[in-house]
Design brief:
The complex is a heterodimer of chains A (314) and B (268).
Chain A: H1 2-10, H2 24-46, H3 52-58, H4 62-93, H5 98-113, H6 116-124, H7 126-129, E1 132-136, H8 140-147, E2 154-159, H9 160-163, H10 166-191, H11 195-203, H12 208-238, H13 250-261, H14 264-293, H15 298-307
Antiparallel strand pairs in A: 1-2
Helix pairs in contact in A: 3-14, 4-5, 4-10, 4-12, 4-13, 5-10, 6-10, 10-12, 11-12, 12-14, 13-14
Chain B: E1 13-22, E2 25-35, E3 40-44, H1 51-58, E4 66-71, E5 74-75, E6 78-81, E7 84-87, H2 90-97, E8 100-103, H3 115-125, H4 131-144, H5 160-172, E9 178-182, H6 190-205, E10 209-213, H7 217-223, E11 226-231, E12 234-239, H8 241-246, H9 251-261
Parallel strand pairs in B: 3-10, 3-11, 8-9, 9-10
Antiparallel strand pairs in B: 1-2, 1-4, 4-5, 6-7, 11-12
Helix pairs in contact in B: 3-4, 3-5, 4-5, 5-6
Classes of the chains: A mainly alpha (314), B alpha/beta (268).
The structure holds adenosine-5'-triphosphate and magnesium ion (MG).
Adenosine-5'-triphosphate binds at residues 22, 25, 27, 45, 47-53 of chain B.
């Protein structure tokens, strides 16, 4: 086979020489955009409100760095929990067990309906609902009343405020709401796999869970990853909502500096730059994950062929 | 090739009054069929007559609604205790299925795995073979179907005929005692049909019990021990290929054969 390819490359006729199509529209558009960019840059550099020096000094202040760390931590932890729960919910939702399927449905319905801010404030104030969280026999006081005995069915407990700190409340709120969205994304991914794949796996004697783990999910990943990247980017930014809980993440700290020093605008710019940087790192990571999961797909073979140098390689 | 040793001398497949409904649409209306061990049974019939559905019932990809279906003396998907029929647990159904290989019209290879990984997957995960054993067996099978030089290619990098041969190797890797083929060459370009039929012919010579749904009348005539004609959810006629294909007893068989055997005018 390689012989054929070689002969065709060596005996290839002289490269075609043709005048490429001209694109005058592109030059006009480029000129217009360059002028606009220059005007914008001029405005940004000369307008006093930007206070570039002030921004540069405060954008990396101690509390801001701590806030950035918390933002990353919040994003990673709540996405990890959200994805794990999302996969479980998606599997429950497509289960043949009607009870599991409806539990998943109700969960998704609820957590997609309630705005994240509301959810976060709610979790931040759980301490109002219960002063303590205790683990023990459910309804123990009812049982004690019923049997007329003195029963303490509590094994151990926590103060609500120590268990649900601002950070935990924020993570919980974000993760639970994320799980609902991830469940829908994972379910769409699983539905994109043709039934023939399941037939083939089952005809080989593979169990439902093995089929899911080895055949369906790895293929669904290709469909799942791009929207998950979107979700993660949205999550980085939604951590700013946590300022209401409150937890000391990036936005809370930058805003704090801004209002303390009455230099609101530079800190807004700093916030933009911070989120831009975090999101860009994430996009690079996503690129590599996507590449891993397109193994064997059509786009992947096309890429391989291109890398090997043109349409000749087979 | 390795051919599983059947546990009893009885028929490999036995169907008695098999019924199957999809909603209110009755697709199988009492199929009766016997396939002896070592026999190649070719199933022919018009589109929509229920051939695929019947094949999928044999390995319980579809649940039957009525009748009885045995593979190698065991009821498929059910156990009988006294008069009562009990559904088998999913893991028991899976255990039954690994003894039955299936090859699909659309190949259904796992696109995220190479040819060799496709073949090794079930032996490693289901039969719990070591990777080394599965690999050695997989390479041998792929060599037998003429794909020794394509072990590490992904399905999209293979032609249809090559993909279907990988699919056959993948089914054989589970050392099945029965192979089901659902129109294995219908999705192939005409010039690729031969290579797949050759592999199947060799498999038949090695003594594998096979049920083959096909439109390849030549294959049915030369390789089939019996030919079964299905129409409208039932077996109309069966017998040895010469009788059924050359001297069909039933009018419907005759009409069907006339349609498929007479060369259709090619659209220009
Ligand atoms: N999962 C399903 N749900 C509903 N109807 C189905 C399903 N599978 C098959 N059918 C119907 O059952 C009938 C028989 O289908 P089947 O695929 O068994 O026919 P076939 O003989 O294999 O035809 P072909 O030669 O076209 O493959 C068809 O009318 C089809 O529409
Ligand atoms: Mg069919």
């Amino acid at each position: 086979m390689s012989d054929i390819v070689n002969t065709t490359t060596t005996e290839r006729p002289d490269a075609l020489r043709a005048v490429p199509v001209r694109h005058p529209g592109r030059w006009v558009a480029t000129a217009v955009i360059l002028v606009l960019v220059a005007m914008f840059a001029h405005m940004v550099l000369t307008n006093d409100a930007f206070q570039w020096g002030f921004m540069a000094k405060n954008a990396f202040a101690g509390p801001v760095l701590e806030g950035a760390r918390n933002t990353v931590l919040l994003t990673v932890v709540s996405m990890a929990i959200g994805i794990a729960m999302g996969v479980i919910l998606a599997i429950m939702r497509s289960s043949t067990n009607p009870i599991l399927a409806s539990i998943a449905w109700v969960y998704i319905w609820f957590f997609r309906a309630v705005p994240r801010v509301v959810l976060l404030v709610l979790f931040g104030n759980l301490g109002i609902l219960y002063a303590r969280f205790e683990i023990g026999i459910p309804f123990d006081w009812l049982i004690a009343d019923l049997l007329n005995i003195d029963l303490s069915g509590r094994f151990f407990g926590f103060d609500a405020r120590t268990l649900i700190s601002g950070f935990v409340a924020a993570t919980l709120g974000l993760a639970l709401s994320e799980a609902a969205y991830m469940a829908e994304i994972v379910r769409a991914g699983m539905q994109s796999i043709p039934q023939g794949q399941v037939d083939a796996a089952e005809s080989l004697g593979m169990s439902r869970s093995l089929t899911l783990r080895r055949i369906i999910l790895p293929q669904a990943m290709r469909v799942i990853i791009p929207p998950t990247g979107n979700e993660t980017i949205a999550m980085i930014k939604d951590t700013a909502l946590v300022a209401y809980v409150p937890a000391y993440e990036l936005w809370f700290q930058l805003q704090g500096i801004g209002s303390r020093t009455f230099q609101v605008f530079p800190m807004l710019v700093a916030a933009c730059l911070w989120y831009l940087a975090l999101t860009s790192v994430l996009m690079v990571v996503q690129h590599f994950i996507e590449r891993h999961f397109t193994k064997g797909s059509r786009t992947d073979s096309a890429r391989l062929r291109l890398a090997r140098g043109g349409a000749g390689g087979a | 090739m390795d051919v599983g040793i059947p546990s009893t001398a009885g028929p490999m497949v036995k169907a008695e009054g098999v019924h199957k409904r999809f909603g209110r649409h009755e697709v199988l209306k009492g199929v009766n069929l016997e396939v002896a061990t070592g026999e190649v049974c070719c199933v022919i019939g018009p589109s929509g007559s229920g051939k695929s559905t019947f094949l999928r019932c044999i390995n319980h990809l579809e649940k039957i609604d009525n009748g009885r279906l045995w593979v190698d003396g065991q009821l498929v998907g059910y156990v009988q205790r006294g008069e009562k029929l009990y559904e088998r647990k999913p893991r028991d159904v899976a255990a039954q299925r690994r003894e039955i290989g299936m090859v699909f019209q659309q190949f259904n290879l796992f696109p995220h795995m190479t040819a060799l990984e496709n073949v090794m997957e079930a032996p490693v995960r289901v039969r719990r073979e070591t990777r080394a054993t599965a690999r050695e067996h997989g390479v041998r099978l792929l060599d037998r179907v003429g794909l020794a030089s394509h072990l590490d290619k992904y399905p999209t990098q293979l032609s249809g005929g090559q993909q279907q041969r990988v699919a056959i190797a993948r089914a054989l890797a589970m050392r099945p005692k029965l192979m089901l083929f659902d129109e294995p060459t219908s999705a192939l370009d005409p010039e690729l049909v031969g290579e797949v039929l050759d592999v199947m012919r060799q498999l038949a010579l090695d003594g594998m019990t096979m049920v083959v749904v096909t439109h390849e009348m030549g294959f049915a005539r030369d390789v089939g021990d019996t030919v079964v004609f299905m129409d409208d959810g039932a077996v109309i006629e069966s017998g040895n290929p010469q009788d059924v294909l050359a001297n069909p007893r039933h009018e419907r068989t005759r009409a069907f054969l006339q349609r498929v055997l007479s060369p259709t005018p090619k659209p220009s």
